[in-house]
Amino acid sequence: MKEKWFVPYKYRMVEKISIPLKEERVEILKKGGYNMFHIKAKDVYIDLLTDSGTGTMSNIQWSKIIMGDESYAGSRSFFEIKDIVEELTGIPFVIPVHQGRAAEKVLNTVMIKESQFVPGNTHFDTTKGHIESSGGRAIDLTIDESADSAIYHPFKGNIDLDKLKAFVEEHKRENIAYILLTITCNSGGGQPVSLENIEETHKIAKANGIPLFFDAARFAENAYFIKQRENKYKTWTIKEIVKKMFSLVEGFTMSSKKDAIVPMGGLIGIRSEQLFNDLATPTILNEGYLTYGGMSGMVMGALAQGLHEVTEFDYLHYRIGQVKMLGDVLKEAGIPIVEPIGGHAVFLDGRKFYPNIPEDEFPAQYLTAALYEAGGVRPVEVGANLVGRDPDTGENIRPKLDLCRLAIPRRTYSYEHMMYTAETIKEVFKNAHKIKHGLKIDIEGSGLRHFSTTFKLVNSKKKSLL
Ligand SMILES: Cc1ncc(COP(=O)(O)O)c(C=O)c1O
Asked: Domain coordinates of the chain in residue numbers?
């Protein structure tokens, strides 16, 4: 194993970015209601809103765009995906769809009968939404350690096996549609699941005749953590670990905007021919014919190539190392982050960052805006605004953690960009303890409110958030 940390690519195409003046940033924030989704991309210097679809494709991926086969049926580009999926996972049937949530929709319409449960580690929000809209219920059985930002656990994405056993015993096979492991666990901060945990979950699933699935958006990052942190696998290649992981599941959904490093795309992988046949009609009705689903031939070619590249050790070593480097620099400066640092993002603990802002005044949302004002850096809130209100009481839910997420796009930003980001955060942190008031809701959006809700400063006389 090569231990040296190096950038395993060079840049031959660049995209111009610029930063509006400080006064302009103050105005942009006010006009956008202190909501990061309301800021135009042209006004953002370092965009850390998401790692989804924002990565940089390689020269070989771009060549696949030109080579894409746009045939309606039997496209060569589709077979490039099928071949690499089978090589990596051993799973024979693959359905292309337009993105991860489309895979969830197609799978759940077929897999879930009214009122069935889908236990797992913390489900991503669209996953939970699709389980619920198919009549099911998502049950979060992640280990307790995942809820404490200061506790170190090498696999904070693990499912609690005792809780899973008890749940299956109580609710019985017929009330459980399937078990879902999200690798890595996005909602838990990009935290990995160990191979031991996957194996034990597989045993429980098999003993009870329940299918086990992956939400595999960041499967390669999960495999890298297994190699680094699970002694038994430290001499295995990433591809060997991936093969072993997938040998334990019946199938998977995948948002290919993450680990396949394409701007758009998704997959469903299925072991059973019967289930594959059952998925055909909802796929064709919602997405497209089975050899293109929701994608063009060009994107399918780039996706297939992305799956080759993402499973290279050097790529992952640099990728996860870059995220860790940013987290370590912040930690050394005493900035409260979630530990251990996950695979695709660094999370700042909003309540600890702003100890004097009342919890009801959205400290993490305030922090996202302060980082934009200070340096044109755009993170996103994963906290009180995102979780919304209790449907029964109408009260704002107080989540266990109120976080500000800095998601790092793949192969996109340099060391200097990361250092600039760290300096911006340090600058905001210097005065953070002096800030006594945060934000109040101005106009609340319906449904997934974090996309649309606008805010006002509680202290309306204030010009700057810093
Ligand atoms: C773990 C996980 N599952 C599913 C999805 C949904 O994928 P998409 O955005 O491609 O619809 C995401 C997106 O962020 C995700 O992180």
From this structure: 22-51+313-457, 59-310
344 close to ligand 1 (CB < 6 Angstrom): no
Burial string for 267-303 (b: 16+ CB within 10 Å, else e) reads: bbbbbeeebbeebeebbeeebbebbbbbbbbbbbbbb
Identify residue 302 by its one-letter amino acid code. A
Collapse the DSSP code of 449 into the 3-class scheme (helix H, G, I; strand E, B; otherwise coil) and give the result.
helix
User: Which ranges constitute the DSSP H helices of 172-237?
Assistant: 195-207, 219-229
Residue 463 Cα, ligand 1 centroid: separation in angstroms?
36
Of the candidates 457, 190, 122, 217, the residue with the CA atom closest to the CA atom of residue 337:
190
> Using CA atoms, how far apart are residues 136 and 143, in angstroms rounded to an integer?
22
364 touches 350 (CB < 8 A): yes
pTM of the model: 0.96
Span 202-218, pLDDT tens digits: 999 999 999 999 999 99
Render pLDDT for 58-69 as a digit per residue (tens, 0 to 9): 999 999 999 999
CB 186 within 8 A of CB 151: no
- If you search the block for the tokens 């795309």, which residue do you land on? 265
CA 305 / ligand 1 centre spacing (Å): 20
Query: Given ligand 1 and candidates 253, 258, 347, which is best to mutate, with the most ligand atoms within 8 Å of its CB?
Result: 258
* Residues whose CB falls within 8 Å of the CB of residue 433, separated by 6 or more in sequence, listed in order: 354, 355, 356
Nearest alpha-carbon partner for 177 in 245, 247, 250: 250
Q: What is the CA radius of gyration of the chain?
A: 22
- Cα–ligand 1 centroid distance for 216 (angstroms): 9
Name the CATH topology of 22-51+313-457: Aspartate Aminotransferase, domain 1 (3.90.1150)
Positive or negative, the CA dihedral 189, 378, 321, 241 is: positive
What is the average pLDDT score of the chain? 95
Q: Could you say which architecture CATH assigns to the domain 59-310?
A: 3-Layer(aba) Sandwich (3.40)
Atom of ligand 1 nearest to the CA of 265: 10
> Is 383 exposed, middle or buried, given 0-12, 13-18 or 19+ CB atoms closer than 10 A?
buried
Location of structure tokens 């009330």: 175
